[in-house]
Amino acid sequence: MKRSLICIITFIFLIVLAGFPCPAKESKPKDIKPGTDLNFGTIPVLQALPLFVAEEKGYFKEMGIAVHLQRFNSAMEKDVALSSGQIAGYFGDIMTPMVLNANNIPVKMVATIFSTPKGQRMFAILASPKHTGKTLPELAKEGISVSSNTILEYLTARLLSSKGISANKVKLIEIKNIPLRLQMLLSGQIPSAVLPEPLATLAEQKGARALIDDAGAGISSTVLAFDERFLKNNADVYAAFMRAVNKASAYINGHHDEVRTIMNRECRVPEPLQASFPIPFFNKLTVPDHAQVIDVYKWLYEKKIIKKEMTYQQIVFDGNLP
Question: What's residue 35's pLDDT?
Answer without folding.
Answer: 57
